Amino acid sequence: MDNMTGIVRAMCRGFMDSLKGALVLFYMDKQINERALRNPPLRRDSGLQKRESSKQPKHQQESKVLKRTIQCCALNGGVFWASIFIFECGVLPSLKYLLTIMFGDSSGMGIMIWSWMKPFLSLTFGTIWVLPLFLLSRIVNSLWFQDIADSAYRYRQGRPHLLSSVSKLVADMLFSVLVQALFLGQGMLVSRVPLPPVGDLLALVHMCLLYALYAFEYKWFNMGWELHRRLTFIEGNWPYFIGFGLPLAVLTQLPNSYVISGCVFSILFPLFIISGNEADPVTGVCDYPLKLFSPVIAIANTLFNKTIRPATRR
């Protein structure tokens, strides 16, 4: 009974910690900038310092946490999501209304024209606008997410402690991307379990843990934690991380469109990066680790050994 109480409390604590980013965001920039003014960076040449300080505007030295978060909202919500909404709720209904005026409500000609015109316009819009903007936003978002994570980490922890070598750094990043992709596929696979409530619950647990990993990975990476340590920590303290990832997992599952779901994720994720950086995970409440990452780690190891090692031997 005490163990179950501890699990529920850890989940609730994770859920509450995940929401802190929205509050911390508004005073973090101010405190970072005040700290920078109190401790200006030292330079070797004082004459050069004066000349460069006179050339550089003050805003270049300020924190970019709030700025990058607003940019994520503007790109993914104000441009991407709004353009899809305008096309589907404005352009298409207007064209259909024009056809109705031209051919009448019950005209077979108008219905036939609309039957091929709507798919053609949707395909053209998706190919020319949605797909390129989706790919561009993924690249830009990753850069902005890194800016937010680095500024938040320096604010709370100080200087990042990265992995010891460039080769380890690259290998860890590639292996991490592969494990996350496989884990996402595993989550989609378990959602197909014949019993709908069980499948949906298992898929939700996978997404909660995956989003928690996304949010905390920036912090742990700056702390110098390798991937196996990050995954072991999540598996051993799964109640907290399920609670932490729950809000983002639920909100991204509400839209029916994968693209809209990606927009929701990109708008909210900066807040979860900040929350993960500020959080102090609850540990030791469960004696049984949830080994959900173990199957994909085994698969990733096999793929890595077959692709990377033969290439290095050549």
Automatic annotation (TrEMBL):
| Region called Disordered, residue ranges | 41-62
Keywords assigned by UniProt, alphabetized: Membrane, Transmembrane, Transmembrane helix
Parts forming coiled coils: none
Q: Which GO terms describe its biological process?
A: macroautophagy
Source superkingdom: Eukaryota
Membrane topology, record value: Multi-pass membrane protein
GO annotation, cellular component aspect:
endoplasmic reticulum; membrane
Short name of any one Pfam family annotated for the protein:
EI24
InterPro entries recorded: CysZ/EI24 (IPR059112)
Locate the transmembrane regions by residue number.
Answer: 78-99, 120-145, 165-185, 197-216, 236-251, 258-276
Task: Tell where it localizes.
Answer: Membrane
Per the record, the similarity remark reads: Belongs to the EI24 family.
**PANTHER family xref list:** ETOPOSIDE-INDUCED PROTEIN 2.4 HOMOLOG, P53 INDUCED PROTEIN
Task: Quote the protein name from its UniProt record.
Answer: Etoposide-induced protein 2.4 homolog
Q: Please give the organism.
A: Neodiprion lecontei
